[in-house]
Amino acid sequence: MGNTVTQHRPASSGPPAKGAAGPAAPPVPTGGARAHRSRRRGDNLAGYLFMSPWLAGFLLLTAGPMVASLYFAFTDYDLFDAPRWIGLKNFTDMFADPRWRTSVEVTLWYVVIGTPLKLAAALGVALLLNQKRRGQSFYRAAFYAPSLIGASVSVAIVWKAIFSDDAIVDRAQRALFGVDVGGWTGDPDWILYSLVALTVWQFGAPMVIFLAGLKQVPRELYEAAEVDGAGAWRRFWSITLPMISPVLFFNVLLETIHSFQIFGSAYILGGQGGTCGPADATLVYTCYLYVQGFENSRMGFASAMAWMLLLAVGLVTAVLFWSQRRWVHYEEAAR
């Protein structure tokens, strides 16, 4: 008999038969995954540590007081005794209070008159500064400076002195126009105009935003309009305003909210021991809120006023966002 040759078949490359054990899986690098998770937790911890000052400030100075004021709005709280739950009585007393209605009227008058004048002054000066002139940097800084110091107490005190009886403004209008009102800050019919003038004088911040928007308008549009014979007013109305409408919307929204929150300058210009101006002429909403909360010790009533102000500002903001579809033009929408 010859030698028997045993032949070995190569291992099949197909899938193993059902029930047969397949090749062993490679070991999972559990140590590397664990190290990755540990490193990620360390990064998250570092991020939370860097955020902790802001989080603490938000919880202690914003969220916490907001929740507390919402509770106080339904209580009788005088800052000294424990708050006593009274339901909606603060709100019903608020609507029945004639001085509260006066504060709403004064605030609305200030917002409707002061905000457009401030934005008009800011846009006008921005258009002038957008032209190439010598010393532009100096003029930009000079016009922006009042917005940095305009909200300070010292400026409001100086402003009150300027518009007081027999001061520089009183003398100027008496010499130029023959009008003698005895000082704007002492006359109920004129004191609010001095507050509006102070607000308009602080047009620096919206001016800088307008200037940044004007820099983005392509020169080719103006050149094409000039070739077609469009005048300066037509170019402004048909090119400048539509192109800067997003910036205009931002300034209108921001300045409207700021106008509803006016307090310091109004209280100083007309502050006379809880009256906020002669005959409540500068009794803006926040001024009356301060008087009720800290001078009359009606913190529950003041908290209810604060939440009504929040709702009013939220409503105005919603209306502005709704209206932007009609007059704000975005490049993405145009495409």
UniProtKB/TrEMBL annotation:
The keyword Membrane applies. The chain crosses the membrane at residues 45-74, 108-129, 141-162, 190-214, 235-254, 299-322. It is found in: Cell membrane. Residues 1-37 are annotated as: Disordered. GO terms for cellular component: plasma membrane. Residues 104-320 form the ABC transmembrane type-1 domain. Keywords: Cell membrane, Membrane, Transmembrane, Transmembrane helix, Transport. One of its GO terms (biological process) is transmembrane transport. It is a multi-pass membrane protein. Residues 10-23 have a biased composition (Low complexity). InterPro entries: ABC_transporter_permease, MetI-like, MetI-like_sf. SUPFAM superfamilies: MalF N-terminal region-like, MetI-like. Belongs to the binding-protein-dependent transport system permease family. This is ABC transporter permease.
